[in-house]
TrEMBL record, chains A, B:
Keywords associated with the record: Isomerase, tRNA processing
Enzyme class: isomerase
Purpose of the protein: Formation of pseudouridine at positions 38, 39 and 40 in the anticodon stem and loop of transfer RNAs.
Active site: residue positions: D55
HAMAP family linked to this entry: TruA
Reactions the enzyme catalyzes: uridine(38/39/40) in tRNA = pseudouridine(38/39/40) in tRNA
Source organism (scientific name): Liquorilactobacillus satsumensis DSM 16230 = JCM 12392
A Pfam family assignment: PseudoU_synth_1
Gene field: truA
Domain of life: Bacteria
BP GO terms, sorted: tRNA pseudouridine synthesis
NCBIfam families: hisT_truA (TIGR00071)
Record-given protein name: tRNA pseudouridine synthase A
Length: 257, 257
């Protein structure tokens, strides 16, 4: 009787061609599956299922995936075993035996993302892979005034990149915050929602930065929900600033927000 | 009449084979000289002189170098011009016209280094190039008790790597501190001294971590100064944790310590 394991993963996305397996590419899924299969005694290949894709260069602080093993390994053994096999840009933070009704992708209730923007005329050499960069003036008060428009159930068709296979562009955002950090000279966004469309966070961040710079009206999101046109929102903030922070299952996420 | 420019530089050392030019290698000096020569109208090659070498993988928050230009460029023009030419892992923080009596290497009065150690059983994927790592238990109080022995004029022969060309191994350390950061789970060292031998900071940090772990007596530095034997201090903390923080000229460094 095989057991299902849920793992929580952090990775530096810089040197990955995204999460999902692709031929001839180094992806998170490929690297994870190679490690998991070294710990499996089964003859059949063990697949690893993620909560969703992340693009090339996008990071994770708490991605979630699951896989089934025929041989039983204690939870801490999964963590230590995988970490001793995996390369240094990916790390297992936790492992948990879960019922087979759990599915990393299909039972997701919510996800949260962080987006870090560094400011200043030039990019800090230590942040080039770990933040987006905005060199123009920003009035964070304008962004704060726009954020209530982001929260709630909306049609995000103006904020979805070509290539999305989602049947509906309606999503609910539970929380949207922006924080200024003068020490690190960064502006940090955080979003929590029931799901996000392809490139949605990066397109929303780009639009919010335009609001902060005054080149887009504060309440432009209300118009963008109506027009449902990506041409009204052409910019996409770079992958380097985006972090999948947490994936929520069941209703316990409500306690953490 | 040519002018001498002092520049202050930050770089992420990860993808550099150290500061000093070497054939077929990407070094900080090679990359700087290529950029500086694009801004020079002189027929002759313009050399860039650093305050000293840093090894492959070692970072800089405030390295200093100088060069001479026949054509006059305003200080801010040097900063903006070089930054627009240089790759993203190196950044000019400041430029200043200085008298030709200034020499980035020979008029140095003091230097300070930071060494970041991350703790925990596994390396944080985001820190693998930016910290050293110590997975064993550490009692930072023991390290704090050892640090007064580091300060002052000592013969650091036990703390110098093979390959050092220094005529004397006597150096003076003005300040040595260690800080625990529970949020980032790091232990951060900082040293300021009149000069440092080849790998000295990394060998001292390795010895201090052994003191913190209890595998070396707290006041072992006093013995190590006497025995003058690198075999008594075999470990070298990895390059990834080391940052050249600041290079001091004249006596104005005293004000900043």
């Amino acid at each position: 009787m095989s057991k299902r394991y849920k793992i929580t993963i952090a990775y530096d996305g810089t040197n990955f061609a995204g999460f999902q397996s692709q031929p001839q590419q180094r992806t998170v899924q490929t690297v994870l599956e190679a490690a998991v299969n070294k710990m499996s005694t089964a003859a059949d290949f063990v697949h690893v299922f993620g909560s969703g894709r992340t693009d090339a260069g996008v990071h994770a602080l708490g991605q979630v995936a699951h896989f089934d093993l025929e041989n039983e390994i204690p939870e801490q053994g999964i963590v230590n075993g995988l970490n001793s096999i995996l390369p240094l840009d990916i790390q297992i933070l936790a492992a948990q035996v879960v019922p087979t009704s759990f599915h990393a992708r299909f039972t997701t209730h919510a996800k949260s993302y962080v987006y870090r923007v560094s400011r200043g005329r030039f990019v800090d050499p230590f942040k080039r892979f770990y933040t987006g960069h905005y060199k123009y003036p920003l009035d964070v008060k304008l962004i704060k005034a726009a954020l209530p428009d982001v929260i709630g159930e909306h049609d995000f068709s103006s904020f979805v990149a070509a290539g999305s296979q989602a049947r509906s562009h309606v999503r609910t955002i539970y929380q949207a915050t922006v924080t200024e950090n003068p020490t690190s000279n960064e502006v940090v966004f955080e979003f929590c929602g029931n799901g996000f469309l392809y490139n949605q966070v990066r397109i929303m961040v780009a639009a919010l930065l335009e609001i902060g710079n005054g080149r887009r009206p504060v309440h432009d999101f209300l118009r963008l929900y109506e027009v449902k046109d990506r041409n009204e929102c052409r910019q996409t903030a770079p992958a380097s600033g985006l972090y999948l922070k947490k994936v929520y299952y069941n209703d316990d996420w409500l306690k953490n927000v």
